[in-house]
Every structure is written in structure tokens, then in C-alpha cells.
Input
Amino acid sequence: MAKSAKSDDREEGLTFQPKFDSAGLVTCVATDTGTGEVLMVAHMNDEALRKTISSGEAWYFSRARNALWRKGESSGHVQRVIEMRLDCDQDAIWIRVEQTGAACHTGRRSCFYRSVTQGEGGARLSFVDAEKLFDPGEVYGKDA
Output
């Protein structure tokens, strides 16, 4: 089956055409530019994507709060975008960032601080690289 001209342009061309899902979001993976460590996965809507590109700092859309937010606006732990890439069909974004402080709202450097292993009762979690860099209660308040 031949590809349509539109999908061929999206996959092989140089036209910026992010493909948002039915909720108007695209998944974004943020990694540390120096180490390659995966820091977090979040979502961007069109406005967050435009603000990220224009400001050079990461902006996201919170599905839980149904609101736009700039990474670090509460904590001061901002992400300066060094490079942004889109995947082949432009429905996922990868940003390489210089992370100030912690990326995770739990106070950890990365949101990926637990490892999954097989145990007797099934899958289990264990902490890895889980040191807290800040106390979320002090930064975000008691409801963090």
C-alpha cells in the first residue's frame, strides 16, 4: 500500500507538523543533555510546544490539573532545552535539557527512580537512584 503524500511529507519532509492525539496532546520525553539519563515523560499541547520552542525552556500540559505549566515555575528546577527532536511520524517529542536541580515533583533527580523486578508474587518495585534533592512538601505545600 502506497503512503499518502501527507504522511510521506510528515515522515520524510522538513515541515514541522506535530501530530497531537485526540486530547490535543503529544508525549514528550526529557533527557539530561550531559548524561543521557531519562528525567521525565510529560505531555505538551500546542501552546506548551510553541512556548517551549520560543522560550528555550520546557513547558508542559498537566492532564491532572488541566493546565499549562513551565517546568520549574514553582520549584525553580527549570529545564533549559538544548535540542528538540520529533520521532518519525511526529507524534512524540524528545528534548535534551540542562536540568537545574530535580526533574521529579517527588524531589528526585529523575521520575524514573524505581526498578521493576520479578518476585514470588509477581512484579515488584525497588528504589534505585532515589535520593531526594528537595522536600516536595516545603516546595509545593502540604498537598504535594
Strands lie at 26-32, 38-44, 59-62, 67-70, 79-86, 92-99, 114-119, 122-127. The chain has a mean pLDDT of 93.
